[in-house]
Each structure stands twice: as C-alpha cells, then as structure tokens.
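Hi support team,

I'm filing this because I wasn't sure whether my run with flavin-adenine dinucleotide finished correctly. The job status page said complete, but I'd like someone to confirm that the output block is well-formed before I use it downstream. Pasting the exact inputs I used:
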Amino acid sequence: QILSGCDRRFDVIIAGAGMAGSCCAAALARLGLTIALIDPGPVPNWHPDDYQLRVSALNLASENILKSVDAWPLISTLRVSPFRQIEVWDAESTGRLTFNAADTGLSHLGHIVENIAVTSSLIKRLSATKNVRLWLNDRIEHIDSGTEDLSVRLASGETIVATLLVGADGTASTVRQAAGIELDERQYEHQAIIAHVVTEKLHQETARQRFLPTGPLATLPLSDGRSSIVWSATPELHDTLAALNDEAFAESLTDALEGR
Ligand SMILES: Cc1cc2nc3c(=O)[nH]c(=O)nc-3n(C[C@H](O)[C@H](O)[C@H](O)COP(=O)(O)OP(=O)(O)OC[C@H]3O[C@@H](n4cnc5c(N)ncnc54)[C@H](O)[C@@H]3O)c2cc1C
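And here is everything the job wrote out:
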C-alpha cells in the first residue's frame, strides 16, 4: 500500500501489539494522538473451542485500565473467570496468607483471562479507531532516531515517522536494543510446566500458590471448572515431572498442593 506523506507521520509508534502495546495504543488514542501499532504476528483470534494455555490473573487495577479504554465489556463477553480468594502458603515454614474479596466488601479480586481474549478485544477496538493504524504481519527493520523525529523502516518497505517510539515488543525487544538499553541477564535455573488440569475438588474460585523449595506452584481457577497451573521447578524436577504419565503427574501435583 502506498502511503501519502501525512499517512506516514504519527505522534507515537508502538512496537508490539501484545497486552502492553495494544493497551498503550488504546489509552494514547483516547487522548487524540495518532498512533501506529506494529507487530509481526497475525490478527489475534480468540476461539471458544480452544481454551488457550496462556492465561493471566488480572487484578482490579488492570480491569479498570481495560474498562477505561472500553475493552473490558468485549473481553467479558468472551471467557473470563472470577477469582474471589487467594491462598498463598510456604512449604518450608508455617507462613500462610489468605485474601478474600468479601472481607473488604468486593465481589471479586480479579479475573483469569486468556491473553488472546485481551489482545483480540483490544485489536478489535483499535481497528475501529480512526486515529490508529495497525501494521500486523509486519516488523521493524531499522530505526533512525533523529534529533526531533525518529523514522522507522518496516519489513514491508514503508517508512513511518513519529516523535515517540514505544517499545512493547517483548523480551527480545528491538526497540530496547536500538535505544542501547543494556540487560543484566542471569540464569535462575528454573523451568515451568504450564497446563490446564481437571481436579476432584471444586476450585471454589480461589487462586492458590505454594512456595516449594524447588520453586513456586500456582493454580488459577478457570471458567470451565478446570484449573490452570504454572509449576516452576529446578531443571531436574522439571525433567522428572515432564517424563511422568498423567496419573503419576496428577499424584505429584496433589502432593505438591497438599491435596488442596
Ligand atoms: C507462565 C506465565 C504466567 C503469567 N501469568 C501472569 C498473570 O497471571 N498475570 C499477569 O498480569 N501477568 C502474567 N504473566 C506475565 C504476562 O504474560 C506478561 O507480562 C505480558 O504478557 C507481557 O505483555 P507484553 O505485551 O509486554 O509482551 P508480549 O506478550 O511478549 O508481547 C510482545 C509483542 O511484541 C511483538 N514483537 C516482537 N518483536 C517485535 C518487533 N521487532 N516489532 C514489533 N513487535 C514485535 C510480539 O509478536 C508480541 O506480540 C505471566 C507470564 C508467564 C510466562
């Protein structure tokens, strides 16, 4: 597509249309700024038959941000699961914490939401926003930061210009590298197992986390009665767990959660 001069100039270019970049685009667009949002991925497409493994617990503050950009009404028509209680306990001490929504007069503490439900709703809203241009299936090839404006060349061949470039392009951020921001990286020797599991007991809309000597294990209540688990473990334990059959894995999980 050939762009005219004014189509190429934006107030803000945002690299990355994940939860952070899309939400940032929606919030800045409400201020009347012109926004270009770029992501190498396709248009995110939430599907009712495909409960995605990548879910997030969004607290009330995050929900309020998504409400303020008018995305929450759409997200909540997809698949969201409220959590009303959080239990956190430690395997090596008597330490235990419980937060309950009802104790503070709240109906819930947050919702478990598939990340794709958030991004697909935000992108749907942004597609209908006049001052936002989306470049999905495209990527930044080169960044030229001048004194006032910066220009960005896309893989599709177009060059766009803005006064501000936001890097919301994930852990291997191209924008971070171009800005010369260094990383202090260190291995923390953990690998996580992520799954949705069916449990004998009801999850009671409770999010749980147990701190084991080998790493934290979290369970998040899903709307279909299952729970999403994120089990962070040492590489040795990870390999052992990953090699177990379903029955043995379920037994290890039950032990690790003390049957809760
Ligand atoms: C197992 C696990 C569980 C988690 N649970 C929770 C939770 O319960 N609650 C919570 O709040 N958070 C949770 N998080 C963290 C949360 O998922 C991340 O903080 C969040 O997804 C980060 O969003 P993002 O938009 O910054 O990055 P990403 O989701 O990584 O998105 C980055 C985007 O940038 C794009 N991109 C990459 N390179 C370029 C480029 N050069 N130019 C343009 N675009 C580019 C990518 O395609 C991608 O769409 C969890 C994370 C993990 C791993």
